[in-house]
Amino acid sequence: MNIKEILKPTFWKVVSVIIVTTGLFSTYFRFSLGLGATTNLHDSVPWGLWIGFDFIGVGLAAAGFTIAATVHIFNIHKYEPLVRPAILTAFLGYSVVVCLLLVDLGRPENFWHPLVMWNIHSVMFEITWCIICYSTVLLLEFAPVVLEKFNLRAPIKYLKIISIPVVIAGVLFSTLHQSSFGSLYLIVPGKLHQLWYSSLLPEHFFISCVAAGLSMIIFESYLIARSCTKDNGFCNTGLKMNILSGASFAVWIALIVGLLLKIYDFASNDKLIYLIIPSMETSLFYLEIIIGTIFPIYLLSYKKFRNDKKWLYIVSICVISGLILNRLNVSITGLVSSSEINYFPSFDEISITMMLVVLAIFAFRLIAKNFSVFLSEVSEETESKNSANQSKQIILSEQYE
Amino acid sequence: MVAIFVLALFLLLILVDLIVLKIQGKSHPAFEPLLPQFDSLIFDRNSFPVPANIFFSKGHTWLRRNDDGLILIGIDEFGSMALGSLSILNCAAPGEELKRGETIFEGAYGNKTVKFLSPINGKVKSINENILGKKIFNPYETWGVQMYSKDFSNNQRMFLSGKKASNWLKEEYLKLKNFINDHSHKIDLAGVTMFDGGSPSNETISSLVDRSANDFEKEFLSL
After folding, report:
1. Gap between the Cα atoms of B198 and B89, Å rounded
2. Within 10 A of A312 (CB to CB), how many other CB atoms are there?
3. What value, to the nearest 5°, has the Cα angle with vertex A289 and ends A284 and A292?
């Protein structure tokens, strides 16, 4: 990519520059004027859009551990081409979360306190440590991609030696804190609306993030294919539908498990009555379930939809939308009636969030274009393992030039 | 309301992206009728012209309406050569009432038989006996069955024609490549030659595993 190409104005580049510039101003105001002056957060609503986005970011990053576990622990190498994009997504997702947490902290300069001041009885303590450890794991998992680029083979050798323990540690940390986000809301039984409050919240959070994380990978595959669109058609990165439709089958299973868990939760806790009480919460709950669970389950039940690139894209958008609704419903909508304050984020909250999302997308695109993120061939390691099936190599992107 | 706001923003960005692409004259990968792979040869061809007055069913039969209202039905080019040269063994009998999805032709690739399904409801008026036991060399001139059908006009939207049919055939050929790759005994050979632009041979079926004909019916000949 040369400088001329980078500087060539396009619609999205102009929009991105506007969003990032506005976001930088908002960040300056937030740190110079404080939370009270720049956000709509206050003592009754201490957690707002930023915490909601933390949940969304971490949830969508879940493919990092699911794909890594599928390939490296369960040895299903068909999905190896998804490992790098999944880890990069997870790493960028967590980076956005860390940045949002820093912005959201009343005293950001004290961010290091949980590292030395341990409160082992706090869920927040577990979450903090898991995020720190898992971000480190993701860095180690993604490091070979960067090292390959600069032909530094010696460190790659050492990283390969520790790769399996690192992957296992990643799965462990990720599983722990994905569910811990749900645990966080177990302490507000009287405040969180009954439609979302459940003793099974950790399980709900975990299962929904598996489905949404995989959907995010499908969505990103389209994004990267779209970014390679040239005036004369496509180049370089095509969509390998057999891998994506295989991943969508896993999404389908996770969604069904999630739905069954929800039905069990409602039936066993006598919460069915809340489904017929007309309120904003009920409408949003239905929207969340229909868009994010029932509609995708229906579509993914049919092989023709799973193999159809158009429907797969629509399904991935639906599942991601479902996760967005769920996390914001739990963290904001579900608490509105108990706090009796209708919170809506300020301009600065929105612009900082959008800036970080845009920067994450920009970073993903930049890294994907300059490093071997979307593999054109399976790794040498896999190739040797699968020498008997060489012609069955799974290729996510193929060269057609 | 925050949830609605964020969701609306997310969907709006996707929508704007689609509009921007449309204005630029490009297509999003999800909605692109031509797959990127079509930039390269599919077997030894890159275009699949179809006659203007013909409709295609997803079960690889074609339909043409005569001036007298009779519908001519035959097997399309893909069906006649997908797994080798197709021989027609049997057709529906004259006078037989056929429902959409019932067998209209029975053919064979080598020693493996496959069934082609009727794309419409109707009554068979006559069959072209000249095609029985023979291979099809000119698929769009060689009809197999003439039918009366009352619901052809109503169901016309279920069929493909023109550019749509041509694109669909390209997709089917591309699917066929993967099908052959997945079902081939000699995977290495099939993969190397075919993906370099090689054509399927007259004996393709003989190099495939036993269940191939059944799988082919399910994947390509169902409506």
Report:
1. 28
2. 27
3. 110
**What whole-number distance in Å separates Cα of residue A78 and Cα of residue B159?**
36
> How far lies B30's CA from each of A226, A314, A349, in Å?
9, 9, 32
- Report whether A300 contacts A252 (CB < 8 A): yes
- Cβ proximity of A255 and A263 under 8 Å: no
Q: Is the ipTM of this complex over 0.90?
A: no
Q: Which three-class secondary structure state does DSSP give residue B45?
A: strand
Q: Which of residues 10-49 of B touch A (CB under 8 A)?
A: 10-11, 14, 17, 20-21, 25-32, 34-37, 39-40
Do residues A91 and A64 lie in contact, with contact meaning Cβ atoms separated by under 8 Å?
yes
Q: How confident is the model at residue A106 (pLDDT cuts 50, 70, 90)?
A: confident
Residues A310-338 have pLDDT tens digits of 899 999 999 999 999 999 888 888 887 77
Average pLDDT value for chain B: 80
Q: Are B124 and B146 in contact (CB under 8 A)?
A: yes
Strand B112-117 with B103-109, pairing = antiparallel
Of A213, A240, A202, residue with least CA distance to A319:
A213
- Whether A343 and A48 have beta carbons less than 8 Å apart is answered as yes
How many CB atoms within 10 Å of residue A340?
7
A14-22 long-range contacts, Cβ below 8 Å, gap at least 24? A16/A358, A16/A362, A19/A351, A19/A354, A19/A355, A19/A358, A20/A355, A20/A358, A20/A359, A22/A351, A22/A354, A22/A355
In angstroms, the separation between the Cα of residue A222 and the nearest Cα of chain B is: 6
Closest CA to A101 of A86, A112, A88: A112
pTM, two decimals, is: 0.65
- Asked if B52 is an interface residue toward chain A (Cβ–Cβ < 8 A), one would say no
